[in-house]
């Protein structure tokens, strides 16, 4: 599992649009990292399963 490091700023007592935008960007960064990590792990799992079942992976250079 991948390690995700994102700093989410503390909200201020008074509403500040710039702080809210920073929080929004930080949360979106977490979502993007989780999505890309999940897809990468899914592809790796699929390749391992195909290799185990005797299939040929698209990355091994054979059968293209």
Task: Tell me what you see in this structure.
This protein is mainly α and 64 residues long. The protein is built from one helix and no strands. The radius of gyration is 20 Å and the shape is rod-shaped. The mean pLDDT is 80.
Please give a handful of descriptors for the protein shown:
single chain; 64 residues; mainly alpha; 56% helix; 0% strand; rod-shaped
Count the beta strands. 0
Order of helices and strands: H
Give the CA-based shape. Answer: rod-shaped
Radius of gyration: 20 Å
- Number of helical stretches of at least 4 residues: 1
Beta content: under 5%
Q: What distance separates the N and C termini?
A: 30 Å
Spans with pLDDT under 50 lasting ≥5 residues? none
**Structural class, from helix and strand content?**
mainly alpha
What percent of residues adopt helix (DSSP H or I)?
55-70%
For the largest beta-sheet, the strand count, sense and barrel status come to:
none
Mean pLDDT: 80
